[in-house]
Fold this sequence. Notes:
Blueprint: H1 3-15, H2 18-25, H3 29-43, E1 48-51, E2 54-57, H4 59-89, E3 92-98, H5 107-117, E4 122-128, H6 130-138, E5 144-148, E6 158-173, E7 190-193, H7 199-210, E8 217-220, H8 224-232, E9 238-241, E10 252-268, H9 272-284
Parallel strand pairs: 3-4, 3-5, 7-8
Antiparallel strand pairs: 1-2, 5-10, 6-9, 6-10
Amino acid sequence: MTQSQINYFLAVAGDGSITRAASRLFVSQPAISKSISAMEKELGFALFSRWEKSITLTYAGKLLYEFFSRSKDEYRHLLKEIDQYRDRTSRHIRIGCPSTWNPEAFCPAIMDHFRATQPDLTIGIECFPLPEMLNMLKNRELDMILSLDLRETFLMGMCTKHVATTGCGVLYSKKCFPDVKSIGDLRYTQFLGWDTSAKDQFEALASRICGDEFTPAFKNCANYHTAVFELTRGNGVMIFADWDSAVHSELFEYLPLDTNVYINAVFSVENQAAAAFADELAQIFGCDGQK
Length: 291
């Protein structure tokens, strides 16, 4: 019996309908029906009584539903107790940041501050792709992630706090654009993006950067590496924050602009240690946590 089978069973029992359960879980009805049938075959008894379009729990199904519901509540309570204990006793903070960032842009300020104020606290900072970081945060493999405010990082049960601001600018190929003095010199090329979840925010930022100079054109690439390849060939320019590692590449030139973007800290609402750490980060970088 798998966790997915149990989740499907609880959903159907709670909704009283395979159709409603499938819609809520974003899976197909046949998948749920097949899962429940396999579960009944393994257990050796029926979980539901089916009459035309209605579906109700059998006596055995009710007992199993009560057991799984009780176990799920106890499991959540146990995790909460573990988190509370860890918050009281842990002196280690695990932080994730995007794999495109340059940790040297912000790590020294963080390490120097806590070395002076909390020498017993250890801090681990590692770089990961954003989707991987989000899963690690949900699975409690990280205490906090840092990301640009442009990215959609909101998760159920998570807090988002603005902890820093950083400058941003436009990155372009040195070879293809040798005489760039201002943003107006890039009016005839397109802005390259790669993150569909941040498309609207990215385009709004580009329009704000270009101001009255010109209306920017956009191209969304399949992924980050494709966008960088197009950038190398001179087929567009890209917006980067000062904390991004690409701004130091020898292949590109970086045009800094009088525009700032926010850095977010995302952490569990129950992780009090991470919340306190985020407050400290906001103090380090002079951010009041508000836009």
